[in-house]
Amino acid sequence: MAAARGPGAAGGPTGPGSRTRAARPAPDQVRRAELPPVHGAVICVAAPCLAISPEHGQLTGRGIEGIYRAGRRLLARCVLRVAGRDPVSVQGRSLGADLAVFTATVRTGADPGPDPDVGVERTRHADGTERITLRNFAPRPLRLPVELFLGTDLAELAAVAAGRAGPELAAGVHAGGLRWTTGDAQAVTTAEPSPDDALASAGLLRWELELGPGESRTIELRTTRDRAARAPVGQVASPLAPARAEGDDPRAEAWFRTSLDDLRALLLRDPVQPGDAFAAAGVPWRLGLAPAESLWAARMALPLGTGLAAATLRTLARSQLPGGGPDAGMIPGPLRAAGPQLPPGCTGTEATLGFPAVLAEARRWGLPQEEVARLLPAAERCLDWLRGALGQDGFLADPDPGPRRCETQAHAHRAALLGADLLAGCGRPGAEEWREWAAALRERFRARFWIDGPDGGRPAAALHPDGRPLTRLTGAAAHLLDTGLLGAGRLAPGLLDRIHTEQLARLLGAPAMDSGWGLRSMAAREPGHNPFGHRSGAVRAHESAVAVAGLAQAGFEKEATGLLRGLLDAAETFGYRLPEMYAAEQRTAGSAPLPHPAACRPAAVAAAAGIHALTALAGIRPDAPAGTVAVNPPAGTPLGALRLSGLRVAEEPFTVRISRLGIGMVEEAGDALQLG
After folding, report:
1. How would residue 399 be classed by pLDDT, with cut points 50, 70 and 90?
2. Which ranges in 520-622 belong to alpha helices (H)?
3. Is residue 45 classed as helix, strand or coil in its secondary structure?
4. Does residue 130 contact residue 235 with C-beta atoms inside 8 Å?
């Protein structure tokens, strides 16, 4: 699917398997299209369908507004006039991931005084369906002329975002509506009831409606690509369990429900194998496969079942590079900007390291053994790639040649340990070798990456190719706390020892990193800090959730609680639909988190972050192959009592309750599971 580049994208090579940096032009030669702001837009998504509306609901054709399908703008303009007047907007809001409602009023002048006498409600669905309901508030009958001005350019989303959309196309009258065509695309808008008049040259549909006192009439529009104007097809049946969260803090239920709805709405079919679904990175800029982010979303959604993880792994396995060269076994992915301090990193590296780790954890959650066996060869090729990609210093550069980033070493360490667990559990050779390599990496990392100081020190953000450390404290350090799940409910050891883990926990919980709304991507006192910088200060929901879960697992309840409450407060402010990032201005009394104008919302990793952060409070540690599950909630209860129902462990429903005393109680589990 065509998509514009969002803040996470970067210039340079983005083709499959690209891991080397290309020569970049001088800054004065670089001209990038500025993405139009979308933070105030009301966005509906049911992938591959998308509707982007201003808060007043009138689609004017300006900017990125419109109805899209598979990256093509089917309708850019849909302006309503009632009795010759533009309705006065009252409210625009989302009713769900795929649905929005816009309320307005009209004063026709039939009665003196300031009161409106007509109510207008427009319900717009991502699939291109809109219902316009007009209601007569006046004490007498009204005869209302209703006009809709429609138009489109049939432009690709990437062209719209870059400001390269063409002029509106001439419309043709179609039965019950209008039609627009180009050489390779078509859009049809039909109306029910059929309009009394259609003027193609003006893109106009017109009705004369008679409404008695208190009566209402509804006009339904449907915009599709097909002449038959049938409803869009192709949305994915969700592999995610219909789980719920409920407890003392009612916001937890709203956050969990919205996160799940958004994640479902972002599911796309793999065009190669339509039976497989993955989570698109986000809308509006990245409504397509982003290997690293799609994999992260699937991993964080494992408590909702292994179906999404399995389908995502199958999709990525089909893209794995063949052959015997240095890139063999790699999962390709584009470069991603990393802020002003570091060159772009390769998302393919992150996805390749994540593949065996996610497969190993999915196995523990209950992925059937036949599916594990099917995906195991691809995981082994990922590990083979890791072995060949290591530098002479034993670290993994990203890209090569380039810096040794701390989070890349954490991903590599997790891939080795969880990959070893996977190999051993499936009777494959090499497990002990990978465990030994991981132990050696821990020693090297602690010796080279930890920067001692009078305040206790910190991990380096990266090592330059010449070995010099980049001393910035960044949110990427949260990945050092993300260890992964092994058999028998054990957590994998981390790259840091206990003393250094405790120091990192203090750093992440301090005001320089904890903005009050979540974890900053770079500490506030670091040179180059920018509260809106997507890698130099802004809060990234995904990293904040990783930090919450890692801190809770490591026993640092105070720091985990502070970040979790900030993240939940931010979610409430954003209507429980967290954007992928938002500004990290320090929280003060009466303040609210500031949106980033170019952030995707909804985004897969931000939606999955809500599920990950809340399920972390239960401390669920399954071992489906061994037929056991343990519940180890953190000692504190930051949100009071919490009940998570409808989860899935070993392909069976699973419900757990956490009391106000922090005691975990399993209420429902598969008969074959032994509780630990």
Report:
1. confident
2. 541-554, 557-573, 604-616
3. strand
4. no
CATH number at residue 122: 2.70.98.40
In a shared domain, residues 359 and 455 = yes
Phi first, then psi, for residue 459 (nearest 5°) are -80, 140
CB 610 within 8 A of CB 622: no
pLDDT above 70: residue 10: no
Give the domain range for residue 468: 257-279+289-675
Residues 270, 212 within the same domain: no
Reported as a single tens digit per residue, the pLDDT across 352-389 is 999 999 999 999 999 999 999 999 999 999 999 999 99
Q: What are phi and psi of 503, to 5 degrees?
A: -65, -40
> Residues 60-67: contacts with CB within 8 Å, 24+ apart?
61/151, 61/153, 61/168, 63/36, 63/160, 64/36, 64/38, 64/157, 64/160, 64/161, 64/284, 65/41, 66/152, 66/160, 67/128, 67/223
Out of 113-117, 142-146, 215-219, 240-244, pick the least confident: 113-117
Single out the residue in 205, 224, 243 at which a domain terminates.
224
Residues 661 and 541 placed together within one structural domain of the fold = yes
| Residues 77, 157 within the same domain | yes
Confidence of residue 34 (pLDDT cuts 50, 70, 90): confident
Do 313 and 418 fall within a single domain?
yes
CA distances from 295 to 71, 357, 358, 566 (A): 22, 10, 8, 25
In a domain, 250, yes or no: no
CA distances from 287 to 1, 71, 168 (A): 7, 8, 24
The tally of domains found in the chain comes to: 2
The answer to whether residues 190 and 269 belong to one domain is no
Angle (CA) 331 335 336, round 5°: 120
Rounded CA-CA distance 280/272 in Å is 15
CB-based contacts of 474, cutoff 8 Å, min separation 6: 461, 521, 522, 523, 535
Q: Is the peptide bond before 271 cis (omega within 30 degrees of 0)?
A: no
Q: What is the DSSP letter of 1?
A: -
How far apart CA 196 and CA 659 sit, in angstroms, is 62
Same domain membership, residue 527 and residue 572: yes
Q: Are residues 202 and 264 in the same domain?
A: no
Mind listing the pLDDT tens digit for each residue in 247-282? 999 999 999 999 999 999 999 999 999 999 999 999
Last residue of a domain, one of 224, 249, 266: 224
Interatomic CA distance for residues 491 and 455, integer angstroms: 29
Per mean pLDDT, which range of 111-120, 304-313, 467-476, 624-633 is the poorest?
111-120
Does residue 332 belong to any structural domain of this protein?
A: yes
- Its pTM stands at 0.92
- What would the two tokens of residue 218 be? 């509804």
> How many residues appear in the chain?
676
Phi/psi of residue 244, nearest 5 degrees: -140, 150
Instruction: Starting at the earlier edge strand, list the strands of the sheet with 129-136.
Output: 88-96, 99-106, 118-125, 129-136, 216-224, 186-192, 177-181, 172-174
**Nearest residue to 339 (alpha-carbon basis) of 85, 484, 526:** 526
* Average pLDDT value for the chain: 91
How large is the C-alpha radius of gyration of the chain?
Answer: 26
Per-residue model confidence as pLDDT tens digits over 144-159: 999 999 999 999 999 9
Residue 33 has a pLDDT of 58
Residue whose structure tokens are 């309503």? 80
Q: Could you tell me what percent of the chain has a pLDDT over 90?
A: 85
In a domain, 252, yes or no: no
**Does residue 617 sit within a domain?**
yes
The CATH number linked to 317 is: 1.50.10.10
